[in-house]
Amino acid sequence: MTLRLHDMCAGYPARRGHRERRVLDHLSTTAEPGELTVLIGPNGSGKSTLLRTMAGLQPPLTGEVLIGETAIGSVPPTELARRLATVLTERELPPLLTAREVAGLGRHPHTGFTGRLGPGDHAVVSWALGAVNAAHLAERQMSELSDGERQRVLIARALAQEPSAILLDEPTAFLDVTSRVALMGLLRGLARERGLVIVVSTHDLELALRVADRAWLVGPDGILRTGTPEELTERGLIGDSFDGEELSFDRSAGVFMLHPARARPARLPEDPLLTRALAREGWHPDAPGPALLAIEHAGDGYEAAFDGRKHRFASIAELAAWARHIDDEPALLPAAPTAVTDAVADVSTVSGYFELEAGPPTDGWRPFSDLLADASALKERVDSVAVRLGTTETRVAASILFQGLAARVWSPALGALIAHDLLIDLTPHALYWRSAPSGPLPLRAHPLNGWTVARSGAAESGRVVEVVYRDVVTGLLEPLADAVGGIVKLAPGLLWGNAASSLAGTVRALARNRSELTGRAVALARDLLETGLLKDTGELAEPAPGHPFFVRRSCCLYYRLPEAGKCGDCALIPTQTRREQWARQTGGTS
User: Fold this and answer.
1) Which residue intervals define the domain ABC transporter in the entry (predicted)?
2) Where are the domains of the chain?
């Protein structure tokens, strides 16, 4: 038997001194047997008025409420009580009555004038208590029961009426989470197992949308919209009715998300719990603008990337507590993977030293960390360079190997930064190498991540220089210098002069192939040459615009190769000779 609204208006009739007040108008819908129907809507939208009208506690202003094919207004009260039961938000109950006695009150529409319960009535009461899993409470007084237990007894009272439909007003109010879930599951089960029409008014929206078969949504505009929870969600009606400045309904997750005063964009993995926790701290994956924070799963924990740094956390709680205190505006933003790949592919066309492959290592590729930790692997590279250069001096081969490797990491790092305002995230454990018969050492990165400079053209900012130095010098070249020093004794000044010379070589390559980048390349290199271990290694001169040259202050030992002479940066070249070389290469300007 259905419960149907036919062009009904719920409200309050005119009284002395008061006009008629229509709360909800033109309502036409049906609650079907075997389904749990939830009545939802914002406070003050008219849910309680509608429920009271459906229960026959106040007449409709126009239209009808039909139970089956009969208008409830034409059904005598006793007969209506046999067809329709209500469970209201009763907080005051006779404290000395037992649960069985309260449930027995539901039999009064069936007992006649005396009100006595017969054996059949007692059987129905026992069945009703059992149906709501409250049989064990039968002999306990109501004053001894918890809120959840009381609600079960009140539903048993409604079942004892043996109705076709039950209307419940806020049955989960005052219950804890576990009890709310259990009670809504119970109501859905009763609807399906007993073929009952059950309509529940509730403010517990997220739970209602998870368990209901149908939803009646009373919007702020006073219009009743019906459908499955998924249909109402997909049409955006839930959000339209409940979204506010600080709260919005997430369609995909089916939950409400907080919107603090400042919503900051973040790139997050598919992790609803993480998303919810960070939303409380003001971080949202759908906030406008490029992501300021990027988080990935890392083993059993999380890795957060912010302003050129990465942080590890063992739990969501630790991560959320850290994210709560981020107030700085970052100079570096986590770059989109495609932006990193595109930038690397572009600068790889400058020369072989700028090439950097992307992808997981396959056969033949070895971690760059091997060169730092495995003396035999590094010694093998030194010996290979010695053979190629035709020298037996290990010191010379080690010096030139170090300079070549420095050029290999400087080139893609500085090329992507200067050409695309993008800083590649290079670490020894994400970088791989393999042997090659000649040419620059092949390098591959996996994963290939990076940082976008927040302000376009600001690659020369102090924060950017700091991160470049940290990643290339501190992260790669300094441990490489230590490893080289473990094979052969070389003065630190020599090695850092080599690192500076390879930096200058990267700038010259960019100047030759991307002349429009020369100015930025020179400015960044000069800032780096004033930093840490590179300080006092030499000077980047520009005797003519677009023609940078490096004058180093230490020797790389290149002159000790058979018939090699001196390298272009050699500290041993007389000043006048250098000026003449510059003049020839810059078209006569000295």
Assistant:
1) 3-245
2) 260-329, 334-585
